[in-house]
Amino acid sequence: MSQSVTPRVETTAFQREVRLRVTGLEVRMGRSGPDVVRDVSFAVPAGEVLGLVGESGSGKTTVALALLGHTRRGLRIAAGQVLLDGIDLLALGQRDLRAARGARVSYVAQDPSSALNPTLRVGTQIREVLRAHAGVVDDAGRAGDRVAEVMREAYLDPTPEMLRRYPHQLSGGQQQRIALAMAFACRPSLIVLDEPTTGLDVSTQRRVLDTVRSLCDSYGVAAVYVSHDLAVVSGLVSGVAVMYAGRIVEIGSTARLFGEPVHPYTRGLIGAVPSPDRAEVLTSIDGQQPRPGRRGAGCSFAARCSYAIGDCTTKAPEPVTVAGRSVRCLRAYDIQVLQPKPLPVAPGPPAVGSTSTLSARGVVARYGSTPVLSGIDLEVPPRACVAVVGESGSGKTTLARCVAGLHSNWTGEISFQGAPLARGARQRDKDVLRRVQYIFQNPYTSLNPRKTVGQIIEEQLKQVTGLSRRERSAQVGAVLEDVSLGPDLLYNYPDQLSGGERQRVAIARALVVQPDLLICDEVTSSLDVSVQAVIVELLRRIQRERHLAMIFITHNLALVRSIAQSAVVLRQGAVAESGPVEQILEHPADPYTQRLMEDMPKLEQSQNNAPPSPRPA
Amino acid sequence: MAVSTPAGPAAQPGQTQPRQVQQIRRHQWGSVLWSAARTPRGAIGLGLASFVVLVAVIGPFVAPDSPNALVTLAFGKPSGQFLLGGDEYGRDVLSRVLNGGWVLLIMAVGATALGIAGGAAAGVSAAYLRGVSDGIIMRTVDVILSFPQLVFALLLLSLLGPKLWLITITVGVSHAPQVARVLRSATLDVSERDFVKAAELQGMRPAKVMWKEILPNLISPLMVEAGLRLTYSIVIMAGLAFLGFGQPPPAASWGTMINENREGLSLNPWAVVVPALLIALLTIGTNTFTDAFARVAIGVDRRPEEAALIDDLGQESA
Fold first, then answer.
1. In A, which residues are within 8 Å of B305 by CB distance?
2. Closest CB to B305 among A30, A405, A445
3. For domain A2-259, which architecture applies?
4. Any CB–CB contact under 8 A between B304 and chain A?
5. What residue in B sits closest to A295 (Cα-Cα)?
6. How many structural domains is chain B composed of?
7. What is the pLDDT of residue A352?
8. Where in chain A are the domains?
9. Same domain for B237 and B318
10. Are residues B113 and B171 in the same domain?
11. Which of B19, B213, B318 sits opposite A492 (nearest CB)?
12. Is there a single domain that holds both residue B134 and residue B229?
């Protein structure tokens, strides 16, 4: 107990002091290559967390690694300073830098299961950090005590059994807290967290976030939290920097930035975040982020910006201070006045027929002899979208795979349009295979990399319909248009497409055969938030236009409201609760659902008691 | 400002950009071959192998004498007329070297093709079909593998007699198990990917799934295996020829020449050294090029900027 009181006293002294100041950071590719990250400047006071948000390719991880004086292979820090307590980390020699890493600045990686050494006991791994930096912590002589202490700080029980465990014997959340304990072991001044909760369940995520917040707070540690998830960031950090195409486009306090975003990109991002409280049409940002070397002379966002004027494509915007935050936009003053319109409410559910498209009774599924689902009932009315929600391990994907015919080790009854479904896809006839379509979670593996988009979609028609070649190519063209992809994509290979485009190709492959039931298995979980909005909107439009029945599998409760009319909450292979979406989200009856709703990170747009903001440097 | 392209890409909307950026076209194995040939390692390998192939292919047309004519002294020293001297019966070594390669090459390529085709068929179907088929195929493979390759070939040849087509088949069959092993593990990885599941959901027949969906994704391991097996084929066939299982006596063959002329090693070493050197250069060449190809295929020799670009865009990680 006494340990945690002492630093608290120190903290108050440091309260306003800037711990980390980054100025003009620039990272380039190779010797003469284009810049990946440029003009990045910010400051973080002691005890505060700065959120570095952006979509993949924005350069946020590159900045995070540069804070430790590190770059990935092929990249080079070309300019700038990373001042930590007044000392420039980038000016240190290799030996000093190595001494600083882990001791004065530490890093928590995205995936704890690969960041921890699988062959070492967790106690040993934490002790190693202290041994590598002997003398950094005053009581390093008593390393054993310090190990127990940091574990307690990370809300882990430092029992001998716990210390003797190997990483694989811990849950994902525990693993990440071990990584946090290692990062905080030497009481660093700065801690860099790179999406540390991606891949964790909401409840675990919340506990890890609480740990981060209390550790930073009690030791006066400055933290930089890299994330693509705006909702997670909004609840944790005091200041936010939004990155786009290698630059910070807007930086300011969390409350200001999320409450009244100014930069058009920030506005787009926030509009794309689904909310569990309202059924909204998610706004999406058309187009894609330009890659390094193709960012042009003007504003990198100009091509996608609805506020863009002629100057935007020729003049690079310098940061200006508007409404208490720094914005990199030529029209910041004009735009600030034009507050975004309130988001339109999504159209209500369509008419629902009487007999179910899909009806499952007492489905029990096993992997080998391990039961995964125990007695699931599911009703999907025609033209309706049913969301199946649950954490990892709840069996939601297994349920989808049973319906699709990918998993055949199940008992019970699933009937489709009144007729019972055979167990596996091999036993189903072509017509059933055509009517029930499945969209995979990860568009990076669901498309054959050796086939063109045209071949991928046409193969589906070849297999389940008897159309002639001419009819097939007409249908492929039509369906591409329907998912808003141009015909020029026909001859492209999947690795030439972005994640969003790939997922649209996967959707096109399902739609081209006019299915009656569409099963979407976590179709947006591997995509960026603005792309997620595009895909959800596309699915919703298509579901209404084509009167499809749909099963939408997701772990993200917030998405449910935007797309589904009813929801089924799964917990450990059983139905915890089911009913209309409004009822489940607003008045959850089951304690499990209530906890899920409570732990779910929400985009807090009106924080009144927000911590002070980091000052833009 | 750092961007050197002033007009084009900057003005265009985001939609068309990723396709312009595309620098590594992993779906075209031809371009992987080409970029392997451009690495120093690949260029050396290709150069060595091409040199030997050239000697073997155009050799018969430029040979100064008939390979079987007795034109000089037995183990005669090299002279202006007979650049590499004479062999055990006084035949021109240069002419025999120039004539003695092409049969070996054809047989090696044939055996390799056979081994790759048979091994790939066995390995891919074992991995994809699983269950009983996997068990039967892989246990057969284990049985063949339990014989050393050369012993296996000798066993079959001594039972069935040394015929050229039989040597080719025998060497091919002895390659198949190793190829099957490698491709089975590569297939296990590919067949777990979602696009294979998607094909199954379309009701595609297993044979078609293997041929159309899986095999095109195995081009890299297939190419690497082909290079490796070609090297081994040459070595084994030269070895068999040395042991007397090759083209029957009067015919010139590099492997046979080493055996025939080893007694005169001190009198005219060239009659042994030159064929041995050609075989060595060929195997080193094919092996080095295969190595370069494998490195390019897995991205080791990829330019670091490109690798970093791909990482940064999160394309590979997802």
1. 29-30, 33, 74
2. A30
3. 3-Layer(aba) Sandwich (3.40)
4. yes
5. B10
6. 2
7. 54
8. 2-259, 264-337, 358-448+495-599
9. no
10. yes
11. B19
12. yes
Q: Please tell me whether residues B97 and B213 are part of one structural domain.
A: no
What is the CATH number for B207?
A: 1.10.3720.10
pLDDT tens-digit series, residues B165-199:
888 988 898 889 999 999 999 898 888 889 999 99
B36 assigned to some structural domain = no
Q: Is A524 on the interface with B (CB under 8 A)?
A: no
pLDDT in the model for residue B306:
47
Interchain CB contact of A522 with B (< 8 Å): no
Residue A607: predicted pLDDT: 41
Distance CA A230, CA A242 (A): 10
Q: How many residues does chain A have?
A: 617
The pLDDT averaged over each successive group of 10 residues in chain A (617 residues) is 36 61 89 85 90 86 90 85 90 89 88 86 89 69 77 84 88 86 88 84 82 86 89 86 90 87 87 76 75 79 83 84 86 76 56 73 86 88 90 86 90 89 88 92 87 90 88 91 85 82 92 92 84 88 89 88 88 89 88 87 56 42
Complex ipTM value: 0.77
Residue recorded with tokens 């002639």: A468
Q: From the list A61, A287, A295, which residue is nearest B15 (CB)?
A: A287
A487 touches chain B (CB under 8 A): no
Q: What is the pLDDT of residue A399?
A: 92
- Measured from the Cβ of residue B115, the count of other Cβ atoms closer than 10 Å reads 27
Verify whether the Cβ–Cβ distance B308 to A499 is below 8 Å: no
Is B10 a residue whose pLDDT tops 60? no
What pLDDT shows up at residue A608? 40
- Let me know if domain A358-448+495-599 sits in CATH 3.40.50.300: yes
> For residue B27, which residues of chain A lie inside 8 Å, CB to CB?
449-450, 493, 495
Contacts of B22 in chain A (CB under 8 A): 495-496
Supply A464's token pair: 């389940």
Cα–Cα distance for residue pair B4/B67, rounded to 1 Å: 63
Query: What token pair was written down for B99?
Result: 């004539």
Residue holding tokens 């409201």? A561
Q: Do residue B62 and residue B88 come from a single domain?
A: yes
Nearest Cα of chain A lies from the Cα of B287 at a distance, in angstroms, of: 27
Identify the band that residue B20 occupies on the pLDDT scale cut at 50, 70 and 90. Answer: very low
Q: Quick check: A427 contacting B, CB < 8 Å?
A: no
- Asked whether this chain's domains A2-259 and A358-448+495-599 adopt the same fold, the reply is yes
Predicted local confidence at residue B26, as pLDDT: 45
Q: Which domain holds residue B51?
A: 47-76+83-101+252-318
Q: Cβ A433–B201 below 8 Å, yes or no?
A: yes
Provide the number of CB pairs (under 8 Å) joining chain A to chain B.
Answer: 159
Closest to B308 (Cβ–Cβ): which among A74, A426, A437? A74
Q: Is A301 on the interface with B (CB under 8 A)?
A: no
Q: Which residues of B touch A75 (CB under 8 A)?
A: 308, 312
The answer to whether A533 faces chain B, any CB pair under 8 Å, is no
Instruction: Count Cα neighbours of B189 within 13 Å in the Cβ-side half-sphere.
Output: 7
* pTM, rounded to two decimals: 0.79
Q: Does A464 touch chain B (CB under 8 A)?
A: yes
Residue A31 contacts B where some CB pair is shorter than 8 Å: no
Two tokens at B232?
Answer: 């081994």
Bigger pLDDT: A360 or B294? A360
Residue with token string 């059994």: A161
- Out of A35, A289, A444, name the one closest to residue B2 (CB): A35
Q: What are B258's two structure tokens?
A: 């080493």
**Residue range B203-232, pLDDT digits in tens:** 888 888 888 888 888 888 888 888 888 888
CA distances from A55 to A60, A276, B205, B318 (A): 8, 22, 40, 13
**Distance, CA of A130 to CA of A182 (rounded, Å):** 9
Same-domain check for residues B89 and B70: yes
